[in-house]
């Protein structure tokens, strides 16, 4: 292969990143050109400056508070989702009973009931984890249920013709079959988990990136709030990529062929 | 000698969600002898799939009995292997593990004996070089071969095949048919081969059963007296065409066309 076509290939791979990065100088130029005041839209350089002004240890504490709740909440949500999805796959009665209930929970604005949850569970991680779970478990349950229901009937018949039992049918056929769906659900859920953690911090917290954004805004430290916001988005993106990576690394078969390598 | 499988007055009626009965099969009577290759032809929607489920014990008939080795069956039996229309391999297992899956699924572990058998069967099916490949890296024909090997691993006495080659192109299909016969010669077993291709049925089977629609039943039977082993030569045999024509006539003009009746050797059931 000629070096020219190789370079082209590299360029094609890097193009999305380059495009995203090019937004930064454009933003900077526009802010300076129109002399946009900091409290409306701070320029990237001001945001970077504000970011550096805050101690690394403080950043770390806020990050840890948010990440802990998001990741634990996400994990808890996964743990709750599996039995719920399995129950719905196993019995029509459960589907008819649980689905409406799940939809009701999902359509209740979590932001609205967050203060109630704080009242019920007091301070600490418990109410925040609850809020995160409430926000994340729906896409997970739906993804798992859909995936397990889509298992080809022939495979179910194969299992039944072997008299392997319902337990093995679920664990060895239906659940693995749902893997691609489960990963799609996880990608949605992990970003929601971060949102859940931040929402909880907005209601009651003394630390966390969400708390820090609110705190900064109330003191009109807009560049600082922006720096926390961008930090948060970066964390969210990394979590998303982590899930994407683990699918590629451990469940490559569940990806379309062209995405495996 | 007692036939391997006997169906006596078998009928099956499904009940829809609204409680309406839908008859799928009615008064089906036939038998399969030891090491006999029986094909069932019929239009789509005539209850072939129901027949497969009844024979494999996945479904219990609402009327009549399905008996195996003389005793009525009340559920899936170890002596039966099933090959489906689609290969339906598990996408997370390589070909060898897919072939071994029934063993692992049923017993929890796989003995070296089964591993050897799997490798033996894979090489018989020309899949040795693909044993460690993932299913979607193989062509449709190869996937279906793996599906057949999977069904053969437990060495079933009775092999039920539900239009196994219908998703394949015509050339692969013919080749697969001959390969199936080769395996069947090496490890004889009773085969019930469901198909919608008349020529495929004649080419492979000892006996062809003809199904008719709504509600489905076996309406005719034709013994195929063609020499074995069958080969592409068989297709050129004058009798091959007579047989396919007879069946075609029978399907389109059942029992009414007197001319067809004269020449036909189809036995009305």
The shape of chain A is: flat
**Overall residue-averaged pLDDT value of chain A:** 91
Order of helices and strands of chain B: EEEHEEEHHHEHEHEEHHHE
Gyration radius of chain B, to the nearest Å?
19 Å
Overall pLDDT score of chain B: 87
Structural class of chain A: mainly alpha
Give the biggest beta sheet of chain A: none
Low-confidence runs of at least 5 consecutive residues of chain A: none
SS class of chain B: alpha/beta
Tell how many strands the DSSP assignment of chain B holds. Answer: 11
The low-pLDDT segments of chain B are 256-264
Number of DSSP E strands of chain A: 0
Largest beta-sheet details of chain B: 7 strands, mixed
Short description:
With 261 residues, chain A is mainly α.
Give the helices and strands, then pairings:
The complex is a heterodimer of chains A (261) and B (269).
Chain A: H1 3-33, H2 44-53, H3 56-90, H4 92-107, H5 110-121, H6 125-149, H7 153-161, H8 166-177, H9 179-203, H10 209-218, H11 222-250
Chain B: E1 5-15, E2 21-32, E3 37-41, H1 48-55, E4 63-68, E5 71-72, E6 80-83, H2 95-107, H3 112-124, H4 140-152, E7 158-162, H5 170-186, E8 190-195, H6 198-204, E9 207-212, E10 217-223, H7 232-236, H8 238-252, H9 258-263, E11 267-268
Parallel strand pairs in B: 3-8, 3-9, 6-7, 7-8
Antiparallel strand pairs in B: 1-2, 1-4, 4-5, 9-10, 10-11
Helix pairs in contact in B: 2-3, 2-4, 6-8
């Amino acid at each position: 292969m000629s070096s020219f076509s190789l370079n082209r290939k590299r360029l094609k791979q890097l193009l999305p990143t380059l495009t995203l990065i090019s937004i930064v100088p454009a933003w900077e130029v526009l802010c300076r050109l129109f002399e946009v005041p900091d409290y409306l839209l701070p320029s990237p350089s001001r945001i970077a400056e504000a970011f550096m002004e805050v101690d690394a240890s403080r950043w770390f504490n806020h990050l840890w508070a948010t990440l802990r709740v998001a990741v634990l909440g996400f994990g808890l949500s996964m743990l709750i989702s599996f039995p719920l999805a399995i129950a719905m796959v196993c019995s029509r009665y459960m589907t008819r009973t649980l689905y409406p209930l799940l939809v009701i929970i999902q359509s209740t604005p979590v932001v609205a009931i967050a203060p109630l949850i704080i009242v019920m569970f007091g301070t600490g991680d418990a109410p925040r984890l609850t809020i995160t779970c409430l926000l994340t478990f729906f896409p997970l349950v739906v993804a798992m249920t859909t995936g397990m229901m889509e298992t080809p009937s022939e495979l179910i018949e194969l299992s039944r013709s072997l008299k392997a039992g319902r337990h093995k049918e679920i664990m060895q056929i239906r659940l693995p079959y749902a893997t691609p769906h489960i990963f799609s659900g996880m990608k949605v859920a992990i970003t929601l988990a971060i949102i859940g953690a931040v929402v909880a911090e907005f209601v009651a917290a003394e630390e966390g990136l969400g708390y820090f954004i609110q705190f900064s805004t109330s003191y009109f430290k807009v560049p600082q709030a922006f720096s926390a916001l961008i930090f948060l988005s970066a964390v969210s993106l990394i979590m998303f990529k982590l899930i994407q990576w683990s699918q590629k690394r451990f469940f490559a078969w569940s990806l379309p062929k062209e995405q495996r390598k | 000698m007692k036939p391997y499988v006997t169906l006596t007055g078998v009928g099956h009626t499904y009940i829809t969600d609204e409680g309406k009965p839908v008859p799928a099969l009615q008064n089906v009577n036939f038998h399969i002898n030891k090491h006999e290759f029986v094909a069932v032809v019929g239009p789509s929607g005539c209850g072939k799939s129901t027949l497969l489920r009844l024979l494999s014990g996945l479904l219990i008939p609402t009327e009549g009995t399905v008996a195996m080795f003389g005793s009525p069956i009340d559920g899936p039996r170890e002596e039966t292997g099933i090959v489906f229309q689609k290969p339906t391999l598990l996408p997370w297992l390589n070909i060898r593990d897919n072939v071994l899956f029934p063993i692992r699924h049923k017993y929890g572990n796989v003995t070296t004996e089964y591993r050897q058998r799997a490798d033996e069967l894979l090489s018989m099916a020309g899949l040795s070089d693909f044993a460690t490949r993932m299913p979607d890296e193989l062509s449709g024909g190869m996937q279906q071969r793996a599906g057949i090997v999977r069904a053969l691993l437990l060495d079933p006495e009775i092999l039920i095949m539900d239009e196994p080659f219908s998703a394949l192109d015509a050339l692969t299909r013919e080749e697969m048919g001959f390969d199936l016969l080769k395996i069947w010669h090496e490890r004889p077993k009773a085969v019930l081969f469901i198909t919608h291709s008349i020529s495929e049925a004649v080419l492979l089977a000892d006996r062809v059963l003809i199904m008719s629609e709504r509600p489905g039943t076996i309406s005719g039977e034709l013994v195929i007296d063609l020499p074995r082993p069958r080969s592409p030569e068989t297709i050129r045999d004058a009798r091959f065409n007579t047989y396919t024509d007879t069946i075609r006539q029978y399907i389109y003009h059942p029992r009414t066309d007197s001319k067809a009746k004269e020449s036909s050797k189809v036995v009305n059931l």
